[in-house]
Amino acid sequence: QNFITFDMEEDPGWSMEGLWAWGVPQGSGGQYGFPDPTGGATGSNVVGYNLDGDYENNLAERALTTGLLDCSSATGVELIFMRWLNVEQPAYDHASIEVSDNAGLSWTQVWENTSEVTDDSWQEIVLDISDVADGSDAVKIRWIMGTTDSSWQFSGWNIDDVRLRGVVPNDAVPGDINGDG
User: Fold this and answer.
1) Which of 30, 33, 154, 172 could join 118 in a cystine, given CB atoms 3.0 to 4.6 angstroms apart?
2) Which one-letter DSSP state was computed for residue 156?
3) DSSP structural state of residue 105
4) Sorting pLDDT into bands at 50, 70 and 90, what band is 170?
């Protein structure tokens, strides 16, 4: 079951470096690949890297980082989100996702582009992050744009409808099934 959800209709208040921003994507960019969308997978807002165009050349890593996420009672944790990503092949430009179980002191990479990615529609992404997140009350997730080289700009990350799904105990189920106890 989903136990944490961010639909992006409200600003999630996450840490954003560089041109990461929350808002309505403008359908811009796409010097190579495809431009940004003009709205979210659901609703209008997303979190994306440069909502009004392409990522920069010669970009250092720039992260979008969640606040603390409590997965202490969950097992089999999966990160599920809607992605609209355009990035050159990793010989030149990089996009990745990392997860921390200690509030960001150390990070484990759970995804990186292994080829050019050119989304022209929203894609549902499901990543098993249980090795890192299960049982931790100090989980953070970060999406990274960069590094990039000196040519060929793409529209980068657009992220919507972020969810954590896993098995969590249901405290609402009474021990006395018929409720007469």
Assistant:
1) 33
2) B
3) S
4) confident
